[in-house]
Amino acid sequence: MNELNAIVDGARAAFGQASTPADLENAKAVYLGKSGRITELMKGLAALAVDEKKSRGAAINQAKQAIEAALVARREGLAEAELLAQLHAESLDVSLPGRRRVAGGLHPVSLSSERIEAIFGSMGFEVAQGPEIEADWFNFTALNTPEDHPARSMHDTFYVEGGTANAPNLLRTHTSPVQIRHAVQHVKKYRHLIDAGQAMPEIRVVVPGRCYRVDSDATHSPMFHQVEGLWVGENISFKDLKVIYLDFIQSFFETKDLDIRFRPSFFPFTEPSAEIDIMFGAGPLKGRWLEVSGSGQVHPNVVRNMGLDPERYIGFAFGSGIDRLTMLRYGVDDLRLFFDGDLRFLSQFQ
Ligand code: DAH
């Protein structure tokens, strides 16, 4: 019966070497398949005499059972190995620290814009917005800065392909064009009152937003933020502008120990024009005049472009740098920090 033992050993070895279920089924076919070793031996029984058939048959059967047992054991072994591999591959390391959710927050310049809107809102000013890609007409011409006017050279402008003087052709260099846009809408709404000689509700609006100029250093960025202010009415004066600006700036910096001065200047869209300087009475900036805004009485030509009679309506306007106000408020000395997107800087304002 050595021959049968050898077959059983061979089967065990072959099953042991099968490393996948498919290999195992192939190895099984060699022994138990239609023309497998055991099957062939069974077929050979037919030629034997009766008693020999009996004992030989029993021996072959025993070998067959041993092979089948080895097959089942290997099948189970492979299934278990597969399961273990899968569990290993999909395992979770429950001891790993969790991922923390970082809470975002508003950018310091946005915080300032919101503050400015809230302060002017409390003084009866609306908030308006305008397009950042602007037409020459609104950005310059309507603001009393005709083509070839030398004042245009104070603004190093980004022009956009495909526009015309009346259709968007540049990135606005200041928020002042929204003075015209807003006033024209306002006047349209109240035209019937104006024409009937009645009082039009005053225009009081602030316009925070992005502006663009070809300019880049520690205190200038090609993209920067301004807030425009416009107040148009029948009985207002420079005094009103001074009062609201002082009130605004003291609220913005949360101190009454803050002085303000209007220094004569030039802007094409205002006459007279002034720069607004501020001076803190305490703190690291104490005693220095700091320029924060342009301002002035709206030029009669601009009042006319708003659709109003400059003999009857008078306007006051200002344009302040929000980035500059934010730098002063938080003691930041390089404007570029605001726009580098470095979270180590930005997260300090949350
Ligand atoms: N638009 C001016 C600038 O960007 C700032 C300015 C000055 C705005 C005087 C005004 C103003 O409304 O009255 O330089």
Mean pLDDT: 93
Gross morphology is: rod-shaped
Figure out the total of helices.
Answer: 12
Largest beta-sheet characterization:
7 strands, mixed
The CATH superfamily name of the largest domain is: Bira Bifunctional Protein, Domain 2
Bound molecules: 3,4-dihydroxyphenylalanine
Explain the overall architecture:
The chain is built from twelve helices and nine strands. It has helices spanning 2-17, 21-32, 37-44, 50-89, 108-122, 136-139, 177-189, 191-195, 238-252, 300-305, 322-330, 343-346, and strands spanning 126-127, 133-134, 170-171, 203-212, 223-233, 258-267, 270-280, 290-298, 314-321. The strands form two sheets. It has a seven-stranded mixed beta sheet with strand order 1-4-5-9-8-7-6. It has 350 residues and is of the alpha+beta class. The chain is rod-shaped and about 135 Å long. The model has no long low-confidence stretch (mean pLDDT 93). α5 crosses α11 (322-330). The chain has two domains: 2-89; 108-349, Bira Bifunctional Protein, Domain 2 (BirA Bifunctional Protein, domain 2), CATH 3.30.930. 3,4-dihydroxyphenylalanine (DAH) binds next to β8 and β9.
List the helices and strands and how they pair.
Layout: H1 2-17, H2 21-32, H3 37-44, H4 50-89, H5 108-122, E1 126-127, E2 133-134, H6 136-139, E3 170-171, H7 177-189, H8 191-195, E4 203-212, E5 223-233, H9 238-252, E6 258-267, E7 270-280, E8 290-298, H10 300-305, E9 314-321, H11 322-330, H12 343-346
Parallel strand pairs: 1-4
Antiparallel strand pairs: 2-3, 4-5, 5-9, 6-7, 7-8, 8-9
Helix pairs in contact: 1-2, 1-4, 2-4, 5-11
The structure holds 3,4-dihydroxyphenylalanine.
The site of 3,4-dihydroxyphenylalanine (DAH) has 11 residues, from strand 8 and strand 9.
